[in-house]
Amino acid sequence: MNRIEWDQYFMAQSHLLALRSTCTRLAVGATIVRDKRIIAGGYNGSIAGGTHCIDEGCYVIDNHCVRTIHAEMNAILQCAKFGVPTQNAEIYVTHFPCLQCCKAIIQAGIKVVYYAIDYKNHPYAMELYSQADVKVEQVELDEMIIDLKTKEKIQFVADLLIKLTEAGADAKEITALHEQANKLFSSYV
Ligand SMILES: [Zn+2]
Ligand SMILES: [Zn+2]
């Protein structure tokens, strides 16, 4: 049995959190970890009790959605709310953090930033991290752990089956392949 690596486990957690995002522009998740334990998590969304972008559209000023609070901020503020120290912690984020979050991460005493996806990586953020001795490392999520392309895969298999039928493949064989595909994807349909 293969155990998944810690960095994959925490990065997967951030990707799961991103699925809770309420902003339609970008879904981000962040997990704060200390001594291999998850101490907080966040996603980008509205202030508690506020209206959601997914319901009423984004509130865009200067090309930014101002309604939402970023995933990294939410995770750090969760620690503030419950009095959990972030000193020497690590953060796993789905996307490279923006400048504001970069500053908050450094100021919270977080020492390592793992991110999965390059996103408008600001050179000034890299400068600040290096000045503060914060390590930054890209950790891409292994798709064997969380499959975020299931819908596309189902569509791909469906298209292949149609092509096979059109190409005049044996009807019995096609039926068997259909059943096999239905079994594999049944929990998603
Ligand atoms: Zn929004
Ligand atoms: Zn941010």
UniProtKB/TrEMBL annotation:
CC per GO annotation: cytoplasm
Metal-binding found in the keyword field: yes
Source domain of life: Bacteria
Co-factor(s): Zn(2+)
InterPro entries in the record: APOBEC/CMP_deaminase_Zn-bd (IPR016192), CMP_dCMP_dom (IPR002125), Competence_ComEB (IPR013404), Cytidine_deaminase-like (IPR016193), dCMP_deaminase-rel (IPR015517), Deoxycytidylate_deaminase_dom (IPR035105)
Gene Ontology terms, MF aspect: dCMP deaminase activity; zinc ion binding
Keywords: Hydrolase, Metal-binding, Zinc
Domain CMP/dCMP-type deaminase: 5-132
Pfam family membership, one: dCMP_cyt_deam_1
Entry keyword annotation includes RNA-binding: no
Family in the record: Belongs to the cytidine and deoxycytidylate deaminase family.
NCBIfam families, sorted: ComEB
Protein name as annotated: ComE operon protein 2
Biological classification of the source: Bacteria, Bacillati, Bacillota, Bacilli, Bacillales
